[in-house]
Task: structure prediction
Amino acid sequence: MKYILKSYRKRFLYKTLLVLNSTNQMKKPFFTILLLVSMLSGCQTDKKEDKNPKYLRWVGDIVQNEQTDASGFRICNGEENVLQYFNLGEGPVYHGEKKSIVRRFKSQFTPIPDDKEDGLIRIRFLVNCEGMAGRFRVLQSDYQYQEKEFDSEIVSQLLSTTTSIEQWEVLYRNNIPVDYYMYLIFKISDGQLTEILP
Amino acid sequence: MKNITLLLILFSTSNIMAQPNCESFKYYGDMIKYEACQKAMEIKGHYQFSKEYQTILDKAIAIDPTYDYPYWAKSVAYLKSGDFVTWKKLIDKAVELNPIGHLGYRGWCRYQFFRDYKGSIEDIEKLDSLVDYDIGHSQNGTYHLNIAKGLCYKGIGEREKAIGILEKQIDLNEKQDFIGAYDYLHLGVLYYETEKFEKAIEMFTKQAETNDLAENHYYLALTYRELDRLTEYKSSLKTAKERYLDGKKMSDPYSNPMDKIYLEDIESELKNG
Result:
């Protein structure tokens, strides 16, 4: 089992590094934009429909999309056993504590000139038993909680930073590392990143 | 600890509104609502995120779309998963049908989960305008709703207003011997931020006496630093670190509370101090 997990991890890291490395080598911004747009289009699928809801196992469950989700990401204990971060009684915890997450986003986020948008952007994802994240989904609204779409460059920056975090906290239940759902909510005011929750 | 422990125990089972009295609908002859209520009660034993839980509540709504409880109960899972869009639609419906029953809850959640300071203030003040009794506590029991409102005023930069609200509510809480777990700490931090250092020390001392945390020692240290009391500054930082490592720190199952500190904050001060 351990070998399988390590193997998944290596493949995932290899793929991620390959993408990031090749991006760094691509000096032409066109390719960088193309990559982010591609990531973004794969993640902007969390539109809300009121009529005739078809529930999955739990509210908010994220099904693997073979076309857009990283193929190297795997959960460890089965879809039926994925928990929510707060099920473990530790509150929202971050590898290196929340300050390191906030610092990372604040240092990497560049406001778009003349963009004065307000609202909330949630990026929700799975963290597996090794602390790796995958299946990222984006939800956006204005401050009246009405769905909207921010400038794609704002979302792509936040998504890019989120997906670049290689290690999330490993959470345990009965001494067994579990898979869990986690999310980050970004408050955007006048185009500036003002708060990161939870 | 005065009554903090009691308060936390009372509110720690988060579904305070989870048990409506269906019989009361029957008593008043509202048989449709009675039927919807009975249906809704079938959620017992199902996890609030589950398909079964949500489906039962959909059926209750289908029986009586004017019954507020199923909308509220459905909304909780969306709130906790960070789905603010669906949550808001559901909780708005509950508020529309029963404003007094849900405004305080919605106001608190807007603060706790989304730091929607203005929205939270609006809801809590609206509730206050509708009732002539005490508006009560946050869903988790940590704060009186007026304290939460005060923190929201701080969130939008109105610190003096926040101080006034917290002072008034803490005074009432003291008279009832029912102090919130972090009340003194928040007021102390507000005093510190507005350079009322002696008052800040008084609040951090009270916090240590009622619910001793890393945070009160950390902010006490910062206050001492401002007053050039460097020996106390260093000893308070040392105590803050001890408390932190002992797990005595601000916490919330779903979010990071306002004024919470991290080990890095303490170590950074220890390094630079």
